[in-house]
Amino acid sequence: MAKRSGIPLGTRIFLLTALLLLLTLGVTTFVTFWKGRLIADQAVDSALSSSSEVQSMLQSSDSQKLASQARQIVAAPAFVAYMAEASDSADEASSFDLLSERRDGGEFDFAILTDPDGKVIASVGGLDEAGQDMSSRAVVAAAMENEIDFEAEGVWEEAGELYTVVVVPIAPAALDYELYGFLVLGWVINDELATDISRLSGTDIAFLNMRASPPVVVASSNASPTAKSETARFLVAQLEEQGVLGGGGVDSASQTVTLAGSPWRVRAQPLLDNADEVVGAMVAQAPLNLLLKPFNTILGWQVGVGLLSLLAALVLSYALSRRTLAPILRLSEATAGARQGDYDLTLEVERNDEVGQLADSFNSLLSDLRQKQDMEQYMTQLSRSLPDNVAPPPGRVMLEPEVRETTVLAVELRRYSRSRTTEEAAEVGERLARDLRRVTTAVASENGHQGALSGHRFVAWFEGVGKAKRALTAAAKVSVAVGRRENAFDEEAPPLLAISSGAALVAPVASGGGSTTAVVGMTVQKLEALMREATPGEVILTREVHAELEGLIAKLEEPPSQGRSLFSPLPIYSLSDAQVVKLTGVSPDDPGVVAAEASQPTLSDIAPGAVVGQRFEIVSVLGAGGMGVVYKARDRELGDLVALKVLKRDLGKDPVQLGRLKEEIRMARKVTHPNVLRTYDFGELDGIPFISMEYVRGVTLRFMLDQSDRFPYAAGLRIARQLCAGLAAAHAEEVIHRDIKPENLIIDHVGNARLMDFGIARPVERLTPGLTREGWLVGTPRYLAPEQIDGKTVDSRADIYACGVLLYELFTGELPFEEGSMMELLSQKLKEKPTAPRTHWSEMPQRLDEAILRCLQVDPDERFQK
């Protein structure tokens, strides 16, 4: 496996950003420097080139001025006549006077008069002597060879100086251009000219005499004589050394040379005479450091500003990366915490980008994990004392006797304590069988186990969490289902009921060739004393049972009656029928009561250990409902455990009820969702219709609500979400449940909720004709929607109302309306507003409170629509 980098992600992003910024700044600076130098070099070369152009322009201007002055001189008739006489008489003095007068006027620096053959007649400026032959001079020779106008101009080197000269003929027009000689006028190339060129071109100018050996500077834009002398020595030496001057020639290309240790850009412009020979050179110099100073300043500012910008960008990048990665860092910390089981962190990220979406998803994941953790903890706490729903079936013997913490219920059917005639024996026996089935069914519906039967006294025992509450509920169901009149000639005979709690020995015993389970001990013995004190219409409790039910009993407006047994010192507590109903919520319409009242012998035939249709082996009773009993069974064909819902035989013969059962299975099989209990098959075995369903070991939400006043918040959210998800799947198939309640929500061992019992569900559009009679209420009154009570059209929003009631109870431990008679409850649902959930639990989030109240709106249009 490749070794992971130890550099944090934020540092890597920062370093990468810094590298990119440095690279960008470096490339920008390099390109700017390179392009700037190129532009600067071009500007320098342009300035050097302009110096040559300025020099040519000024030289041409000077030549034109000199030519104009020379023409004025030779055009004067007196001067021509004078020159004619002077030529004949060779009167040098007269000629000298004439030229000196003009020179003093500043019109030229020197002048020479020659005869037609180029010999000097007179000169001013001390350059030549009379009689000297000037015809060899290139400019004079050019004028003599010019057959058109005998004029010429050029550069003249004389006595170490350079001059700009013009030659014009002395030939009066009146004499048909008879040539008397030539007038040569010149201006010296001096510092003033160099300064003018320097001012116009922006470069330093130096004029060199190339005829001297070595070449010397004759004029410079630097007016200081000392500087001029130094420039002369240094410039000439450097230019010759670096090849700009050499062998009398001049390289006119721009070059970079080193002068006084500094880089200079120089260009030497040759000064040619009329024979195209180099007489001198004009050297234009530009100090690169000075010329590039503005560029270097700009570049320096650019680098400085760039570095400051880089620093600011790095700081901002660091801060931005920290801010951008802060949610990811928190996400990393939360992930590490979640790996250790800490799910209490919440990422608060107010962003809509991918990071915000990731944070929202992680928050949802943490919420799910918190809910799952709370549910698992809650289930673990309950599992320590969960009852074993499987009682040992007949024919199966327990291996070892065990001492268990139990709650024991004694039921005495006082009706059968009176003597009966032999003519009534058959009727009494049938009645006793029916009552015993009612008792066993009521006990089984509360996960109790059948104990000993002694005459008309029945003993049952309960284990696990809430055993006292379940024993009391079973007693309430027995009280309602047993002892009622079966006809007009019958009389009521309520049973005697007593409950004790404590350690008891549960042991297998063999009797009469068979085996059963016996429960013995002081806990059972206490019932003997209690039964002597019992009266019809009440339930007697021992002190231990009262202590277990203390939290529940505290809700009663009046406490139970307390006294002592006449036959023992034991304290006893008496609960009236009304108090028992208040504590347990059992009513004549309770499914357990309805099932307990069912006296069909078919259900008594289906007991643990029985095999139905040679296929299903009954393991235990899971519960009872209005349509039948639900068993845990082993499917011998599939080799798996299933939940078998069996319809009572007589109801199975009713085509209406059978049609309801078929409708249930047809719709239930359409709903496939992890939070919905799966339905496998429908059939008829031994004349009994049944539905086989997925078996899930767990407890109903009703059982869990009975163990505490209010469900843990996070665990409650988990159950609520799973309930809504499963119900949404049903509604998506256009199926409504119509009986959402805690009894129909089973929680498995890992805390997942499964919605079950679509026994009264129907399609959203309409019910198949004949399956519901007009005026009937289908469902459980506590959870019925107002439109169900009014007999109006029912749709999926009725399930949403029932969900609101269930969530109200889940998060507060209370119901939205005060419990009273059924008619009072139904009237409240239609006319009154429910109490706000936060009244019972002040810490409930406001949004949850509002959501529950919206579900409980009387008008379906004001509820959530899905």
Low-confidence stretches: 387-399, 598-604, 761-778
Silhouette: rod-shaped
Main β-sheet: number of strands, strand sense, barrel status?
8 strands, mixed
Mean pLDDT: 76
Class from helix and strand fractions: alpha+beta
- Percent strand: 15-25%
What portion of residues is helical? 40-55%
Distance between the termini: 50 Å
Keywords for this entry:
866 residues; 8-stranded mixed sheet; 31 strands; 43% helix; 6-stranded antiparallel sheet; alpha+beta
Question: Can you put this structure into words, describing what you see?
Answer:
With 866 residues, this protein is an alpha+beta fold. Helix content is 43%, strand content 22%. The chain is built from 25 helices and 31 strands. Strands 13, 14, 15, 16, 17, 18, 19 and 20 form an eight-stranded mixed sheet that branches.
Concise structural overview:
With 866 residues, this protein is an alpha+beta fold.
Task: Present the secondary structure layout.
Layout: H1 9-75, H2 77-89, H3 92-104, E1 110-114, E2 120-124, H4 138-145, E3 152-158, E4 161-170, E5 181-188, H5 191-201, E6 204-209, E7 216-220, H6 225-241, E8 245-246, E9 249-250, E10 255-259, E11 262-272, E12 278-287, H7 288-291, H8 293-339, H9 354-383, E13 402-412, H10 425-445, E14 449-454, E15 457-462, H11 467-481, E16 496-511, E17 514-520, H12 522-533, E18 538-542, H13 543-548, H14 550-553, E19 561-564, E20 571-576, H15 577-584, H16 591-597, H17 601-605, E21 611-612, E22 616-624, E23 628-635, E24 640-647, H18 649-652, H19 655-668, E25 679-685, E26 688-694, E27 698-700, H20 701-706, H21 713-732, E28 735-736, E29 745-748, E30 753-755, E31 762-763, H22 786-789, H23 797-812, H24 822-831, H25 846-855
Parallel strand pairs: 16-18
Antiparallel strand pairs: 1-2, 1-5, 3-4, 4-5, 6-7, 6-12, 8-9, 10-11, 11-12, 13-15, 13-16, 14-15, 16-17, 18-20, 19-20, 21-22, 22-23, 23-24, 24-26, 25-26, 27-29, 28-31, 29-30
Helix pairs in contact: 1-5, 1-8, 2-3, 8-9, 9-21, 10-11, 10-16, 11-15, 11-16, 21-23, 23-25
